Amino acid sequence: MIRDPKRSRQYADAIRASGLSIYDPIQPNNPKLWIPTWALEVLLNEALVGVSLSGLPLRTRSRIVKGLVCKALGYPVPTCFRRTKPKFPGQSLDVYTQKANNLQIWNEELSPTRRYALIGVSSEGVITRVKVVSGETLARLDTTGTLTQKYQARLVPRETDRELVTKIDTEVVLPLTNRLAQVTSASSAIDWPQSGELLPISRIFEILAGLIGTTFGDTGYDQERNRGALLHEIVCRRLGYAEFRDVGQFPDIRHQLLEVKLQTSPTIDLGLVCPDCVDGTGLPTIAGRQVRHCDIRYAMFYGRTDGLRVSLEKLFVVAGRDFFKRFPRFEGRVVNKKLQIRLPSDFFDA
Asked: What string of H, E and C letters represents the secondary structure of the chain?
């Protein structure tokens, strides 16, 4: 098929003249209004390549990209985008913006009849190329076919900037705590604690509350993991650890059974760990007591960023046992799942 830009624009003109929205169904056998895959790719490359998304928050970036896609295909931009699967039902088209070659598809399997527009973005945040492929093509790249589960919740702020959600530790952790415990020069944040070395959850709250108002450099709008690592280091220093160490295991500060989280959006990503789970962590016992997921303490900071610096505005300290009592599960879901597909390094060049 010759990818004729003029012919592809005729499809967009026909859509524009029809008055249809992206949510109005079109049958694939409609020769005028169903845009062939090759034409989708031509139209999207013409409209999107060179557009800068640098510095935009993820939600803003998503909204802008969907608006650009609408205009490129001849559709009016909706006042509010609906949560549909796929995002553009009229053309059976989903859109994913990719700064890395790790494609993540949430809560659904690949559909062989769906088209997927993958938008490549440079490290500077500029759109470099759009590839439109079928679900069947992506399926050939999926080596596992496994949906990875990921728990999520929603942060609902209140007026107070410091909130101790759990005032007393769980029955497993409480006997192991010591309000007078000291983090010494020999203490390491990644060591498994001994009885008497754990600060009570209320004392952790008192110490970390002083971080409200702290600012630190922003590593980039799409660098949540790196921003979280910077906060992790700040919390370690505040608790008294002479050296910041992180082995990437749960919980972040094992010496205090403390998980540290930074939120710049309302969606709380909890990964594979369900906070209120009563199962054991599989880690060593403390004085014969098996620590469960629900015993882990969480220090969650809510911050704002101007793209250059992150400012810590709110603190929530909560035990896993009480996590969902304060922070509702995301949209009522017990768990979200994602399919991860590693795209070849030359995917956008091929």
From this structure: CCCCHHHHHHHHHHHHHHCCCCCCCCCCCCCCCCCCHHHHHHHHHHHHCCCECCCCCHHHHHHHHHHHHHHHHCCCCCCCCCCCCCCEHHHCEEEEEECCCEEEEECCCCCCCCEEEEEEECCCCEEEEEEEEEHHHHHHHCCCCCEEEEEEEECCCCCCCEEECCCCCCCCCHHHECCCCCCCCCCCCCCCCCCCCECCHHHHHHHHHHHCCCEEECCCCCCHHHHHHHHHHHHHHHHCCCCCCCCCCCCCEHHHCEEEEEECCCEEEEECCCCCCCCECCCCCECCECCEHHHCEEEEEEEEECCCEEEEEEEEEEEHHHHHHHCCEHHHCCCEEEEEEECCCCCCCC
